[in-house]
Design a protein that fits this description.
Six copies of one chain form a homohexamer. Chain A has 259 residues and is α/β, with parallel strands linked by helices. Chain A has one domain: 2-enoyl-CoA Hydratase, Chain A, domain 1 (Alpha-Beta Complex), CATH 3.90.226. Chain A is 46% helix and 15% strand. In chain A, the strands form two sheets. A six-stranded mixed sheet of chain A has the order 1-2-3-5-7-10, sandwiched between helices. Chain A is globular and about 55 Å long. Chain A starts with a strand and ends in a 10-residue tail after the last helix. Chains in contact: A-B, A-C, A-D, A-E, A-F, B-C, B-D, B-E, B-F, C-D, C-E, C-F, D-E, D-F, E-F. The interface between B and C is large, with 39 and 46 residues. The complex binds nickel (II) ion (3 copies). Chains A, B, C, D, E, F: Belongs to the enoyl-CoA hydratase/isomerase family. Chains A, B, C, D, E, F: One of its GO terms (molecular function) is lyase activity. Chains A, B, C, D, E, F: Its EC number is 4.1.1.41.
């Protein structure tokens, strides 16, 4: 465990991302540690989990580890790819997960916090949907996470403009449940977690699962899905996907041609 | 009619819950009277209905009548159980129903007001989702009512923390349409109802029905449903359900074991 | 092109409705010009489109051209009718469309701006759902546009009361993304459009399409649909539909009987 | 009751179509009598119903009463139109309905017998799907009845060729359950009905309802439905619909232009 | 292992039901042994499984162990009840399962063989759907298994008449893939299994899973499901369920009242 | 046009596959010619199309052109790949397509004939589903074509055993509509096509489209689809896919390891 820290107090387990140096990027290694933390929480029958970065960070998590993105001609958001795995693990965990957020939350990390159950953030936090900066075709389950979290026009603006949304607007949009100042947020979340831990765990677990099922109940025909998958393939087969990733690595602005 | 009062003025019918003594608990008897009121409104071709408690109450309705909950090993939220029946009656009533809310709205009563079409509340009102306090597995249609009324993370917080949400936050979350002070709310709702009564009733009825159909259009496979039903059965077969109900009756804090 | 004006700057194309005299009513002719504008944008590979009225208008668009509504016994919102065609064209356009809104947006025009991707409005704007004033049975796809744009109880209030919602409330409800004063809104939207134009067009196009698919994924059985269609037919076969349209033309209040 | 005859023996009720003169055409009057028969069976708590024509008929039923078809510009298969009403009544009847078939079963009558639960036919029976002869756009629920009854390519052949299928092929295709010679079929069906009447009625009723729900569970999006409805409207607005009905009345071959 | 026998030859594993004395009734103990057999097959990476009774039996399996059915007021076909568990295990097993059938297959055993992938039977076999004999409300997933296996009217006849269907008709109905005489059936199935074992196991596994997903893709709304569940509860709460089970135990004909 | 021959007689257009040398393999070139033929038929407003091979062929079509399959790590059945394109073109063609079949129909060609509307075959024809021979993960839309054409257990047997089904069994299974001897089949299909051409083309077109919509209405959640896509990716990333294709080219039996 070199990228996270796991602590338990009573029925509450806290997973802290500790890789400030690389801005808590969601590398395969980082995600494996988060999964380990969840596994530990499951074994300990934790009744609430807090997922957080270290106090005082400027970036909560920078999202996808771009250096791990597959080359062209390969879906970067497949079922077994790390981001998708951790999101399902959070959704399927049988107790509530509180995301304690301080600092910037970008790209895949944004979806990851939305896959938590309750979001509490400091007033300085911000949130951005970034695939349009890189030329990545986000996957349909991923976009559903966003649609379920806030209203459609807000998702579209965030996805199409790729600009960060600040904490106040995130509160209005229902993206976060509460804002708390940095020096109070830890205790606020701990108090909330202790409250949850006194309630009936099975009742909560079944309601969490029912809500998960309802939230994913936007069924489409196989034909429509394969069509979308075909559109997505054109994108990750294309010039702009290569250019986006390369420009990011070279720390320059990309030049997109729409091809 | 000993638990409600029915009055009609022009095209508008008002149903007032009058069982303050028992905090307008949703007993079978109370629900039967609400259903009668709706039946009367249907016969009278009312073009709008107002559902309210008496002015000045501290609790609008305390929700489920715990003393009527079935013993263990029995789904407490079956299709023919009173709460489910009244919710469908409100949804299927062919004219708009305005919930005029003053005071606390708890448990099943919260879902009942959400099944109304327009919610107007005083600034002192509050709302709580309480099954986690009792160890009850809420049903999937019931949770869908909440999901359709506000955003997913707010529903999760309310369901998993079981804490009341105050009127201001309810307004921000879109749970209520308007806040009005206690001395103005009656006239505000009457004015709104009169306005509705001047419009085309069939056009409104068909739009209400279309919205009902759309809101319930989150289809899942029979397999997924039976799985959820199996999870719910484990809960109402379990120790915590018995403990939750008993502790409530004995007016003490429950001790949940998660079994 | 006598009802609109088309301008292009860089990758951004602007369509301006210019028929102030008839309050930019959505006549067949007006809709054909909007469609032409979108076609031109497609040919030019525009990366963002702005849809707006002329600066200073009091009514952005008055919605349906009532004089073009079919007589009784005919669905006024069929698949090939102009409003439905333009809404699909906006949804299927492969780049983001920004609705720049100043003034009143009524009836079908309200749905049309919601079919755009991002809505920016002046503080004096207002929005109304008006079929209940005319006795029209809105169609189910149309109501889905509203449900996807804001929460259910707000849609119900707007549909059943037919009263305008002002810009502030529209912002809270998530109906508009941003409010901007009249003298800044043009530059605000232009800036937003230029920002979009620098991002990866294919990534944006596929996300727009995925969101469209997800937003329409509220499937219902053919039986339920034909039932709704049957209810709607009763309305447009009925007395009130005739009365509503006639009263509008005669500029008097309609008298609805519910038949 | 001039078009049907109702008889009851024990728990079994028999409805006999007796309008041989007009080949048991499904006029509004005929359908009302069938509905009355079902109502009577419901009151009598019949455990099985037999629907039949009189012994020895050459045509079991000729289907739609063409003289009652609406003029152009009107959906001939709306929710409240007689054929659709009787089909739902058969599907929703709480006990099994046995169609005893002798002779030709054409058009809407074919769908009507498929809406029964068990089909027994004489070897001389035949079955035809005929809207393509008249230029009628069959409705989607109606086609679902056919798809649920046999395989897709057989439905297509019958619908696109409009040729009768004989009893042997109907048996192979699973359209009928059993063939029985004309002099044995009455007793065969009576025996089957008596067998059903000895079994548990509620168990049967709930399985019938579950199968009805499953068979109709081919959900589509509102958008797809309105598109199909739009295609159908083009057909009943068109020249060929007028020509088809006229030619039928004038007893000549129609000349279709595809417009 | 006292109720089954497990044998492996090459890539093929055979599970034989050996409890002839009790007609291979699907008791909890029997189902646990079948599950063990499947587990063993999974560990051994078997590429095909044969599920059979001993040669020469008159009853392949008598289905549900009636003595294990729950008392009244309890769903006898819950998610975790043995029959439902084994059916899912067969469907989810990653290699094809061949049901080798000789003799009568009744009630739950009929659904169990349909949950296998390929059915081969002797000409003396027969199949019956029996809940209507006992007053049991079959569950919706269970009925879906039947609908997916053959046509709707055949399922209705079998469910509503509770009479056995013989092997010839089962072949015509597509219920079984092949008939083979008793002295050839063992070698026929072994040959088929060896053929499968030579093909690409992952390609087969993924197609089996895709077909499972498609076959269960008959989604319904939560509301419809809870309604069906409510209807089913009335049945297992009722008089006839008690009477049906009691009469079976007392080996007499039940007297059903429909209550 | 070197691989097909197009002929028109009256309202009927015939497309004949003429690449006997390569057994009418569905290469990109072949599929482009079929698409051209359909385009020509559309322009000519053909009311029926016959798709056939030349008289006397032993192989109607050998299916996929294995030499064009993508290397490992690439979905061989993507939305824009030729087989998927031609299948949609056949389904969406507005008039009935009759597949006139003589000889073996293998792999993708089998799905292609099932995408036609009516199948007529000579008694010597045979049909095989072959991906398990090559290690290919068939796509979910493709398997839906098979499920819609015949019963589930037959599809499983064909997919898991990869053995040809002869014409007699194909008739019983509903895969083909009619068998006709080789010297009569041409006239039989021509007669059928002429019959169709006399009926109402728009009525037929709309029914074809409704049936297409219904047949594809097996909606699944995005999550379930992405899971299936993930399983399929494991297959085309795996050893067996490479081995299957290589063995086919080297004309030897493949050795599959299940990895
Ligand atoms: Ni939703
Ligand atoms: Ni929704
Ligand atoms: Ni189906």
């Amino acid at each position: 465990m070199s990228l996270t820290k796991i602590e338990q107090t009573g029925h509450v387990l806290t997973i802290t991302l500790t890789n400030q140096e690389r801005r808590n990027v969601l590398s395969e290694a980082m995600i494996e540690e988060i999964l380990s933390g969840l596994e530990e929480a499951r074994t300990a029958k934790a009744r609430a989990v807090i997922l957080r970065a270290e106090p005082g960070v400027r970036v909560w998590s920078a999202g996808h580890d771009i250096s791990e993105l597959p080359h062209s001609h390969r879906d970067p958001l497949g079922w077994s790819d790390p981001l998708r795995v951790v999101i399902r693990a959070l959704e399927e965990f049988p107790a509530p997960i509180i995301a304690l957020i301080e600092g910037g939350v970008w790209g895949g990390a944004f979806e990851m916090v939305l896959a938590c159950d309750i979001l509490v953030a400091t007033p300085e936090s911000s949130f951005a949907i970034t695939p349009a900066k890189l030329g990545i075709p986000y996957n349909i389950v991923g976009l559903l996470t966003f649609i379920n979290a806030t209203n459609l026009h807000a998702v579209k603006e965030m996805a199409f403009c790729a600009q960060p949304v600040n904490a106040d607007r995130a509160l209005t949009l229902g993206i976060v449940n509460h804002l708390q100042p940095a020096d109070k947020i830890t205790e606020f979340c701990a108090e909330m977690a202790r409250g949850i831990a006194k309630l009936a765990p099975l009742s909560i677990a079944v309601m969490k699962e029912e809500l998960r099922v309802l939230a994913s109940a936007h069924a489409i025909t196989p034909r429509m899905f394969e069509r979308v998958q075909g559109l997505r393939r054109k994108v990750y087969d294309g010039h702009d996907y290569v250019e986006g990733v390369r420009a990011f690595r070279e720390k320059r602005a990309p030049v997109f041609t729409g091809e």
